[in-house]
From TrEMBL:
Protein's organism: Fasciola gigantica (Giant liver fluke)
GO biological process per UniProt: proteolysis
Gene3D superfamilies per the UniProt record, alphabetical: Cysteine proteinases
UniProt family annotation: Belongs to the peptidase C1 family.
Lineage, uppermost ranks: Eukaryota, Metazoa, Spiralia, Lophotrochozoa, Platyhelminthes
Keyword Protease: yes
Gene name of the record: cat-L3
Peptidase C1A papain C-terminal domain boundaries: 33-246
Top-level taxon of the source organism: Eukaryota
Record's protein name: Cathepsin L
Transmembrane portions of the chain: none
GO molecular function terms noted in the UniProt entry: cysteine-type peptidase activity
Presence of the UniProt keyword Disulfide bond in the record: yes
Alphabetical keyword list: Disulfide bond, Hydrolase, Protease, Thiol protease
Length: 251
């Protein structure tokens, strides 16, 4: 049932207004924003991952955004460790497999280096923190936020800067999604329960859409991705809790 699925895979995301964000509100730069973009084509996006029966979508959203920005600054496509965030960012307000928030993971990454997937592999379970400073690769200097529910701002952020961490309100129709441009008239744009990575946007037959990477394996949706209707009143909250880290090498 959806209730069982929800308990296993989803986690309530705090509302944007419910916590104090230390990120910088994104101001559109005076640069041309492409009419469509897909960062997968430039190597900014790693393979589709699978969070398994752990409510760690927030960690996958965080690593996805970090991966894109590491590629942008270092020109290396590297897969980062979700497990490190699950095990180690509790002091910053995250709750492992019981849920968390990308911006709390960013605060953790201001202080600690992020290891690669290969040095700290994913287990789909919570465990003691096994962070090894010697193996840290990337760190965060700051991050941008779009909390305005403004899809134009989100388009600017993704079009100019790269893939962004986002959160959505997903329901049973989303769970059953197979292909096409997803439209949901009943999902909330405020009460969000699942974190993902927006990797681009485009238009098909006049319908605008976002390209969003999920963490439910490559057999879900369009090879692990969903195209979500764009400029439809911030459908499912895509622009309610969006963010993008500014990444640097560690140490």
């Amino acid at each position: 049932t959806f209730e069982e699925f929800k308990a296993k895979y989803l986690s309530e995301m705090p509302r944007a207004s419910a916590f104090l964000s230390h990120g910088m509100p994104y101001r559109a730069k005076n640069r041309a924003v492409p009419t469509s973009i897909d960062w997968r084509e430039s190597g900014y996006v790693t393979e589709v991952k699978d969070q398994g029966g752990c409510g760690s979508c927030w960690a996958f959203s965080t690593t996805g955004a970090m991966e894109g920005q590491y590629m942008k600054s270092q020109r290396i496509n590297i897969s980062f460790s979700e497990q490190q965030l699950v095990d180690c960012s509790g002091d910053f307000g995250n709750h492992g497999c019981s849920g968390g928030l990308m911006e709390k993971a960013y605060e953790y990454l201001r202080h600690f280096g992020l290891e690669t997937e290969s040095s700290y592999p994913y287990r789909a379970d919570e465990g003691p923190c096994q962070y090894d400073k010697q193996l840290g690769v990337a760190q965060l200097s700051d991050y941008y936020i779009v909390h305005s529910q403004d899809e134009v701002a989100l388009k600017n952020l993704i079009g100019v800067e790269g893939p962004a961490a986002v959160a959505l309100d997903v329901n049973i129709d989303f769970m059953m999604y197979k292909s096409g441009i997803y439209q949901d008239e009943i999902c909330s744009s405020r009460y969000l329960n699942h974190a993902l990575l927006a990797v681009g946007y485009g238009t098909e037959d006049g319908t605008e859409y976002w390209i969003v990477k999920n963490s439910w394996g490559s057999r879900w949706g369009e090879h692990g991705y969903i195209r979500l209707a764009r400029n439809r009143d911030n459908m499912c909250g895509i622009a309610t809790l969006a963010s993008l880290p500014i990444v640097k090498r560690f140490p």
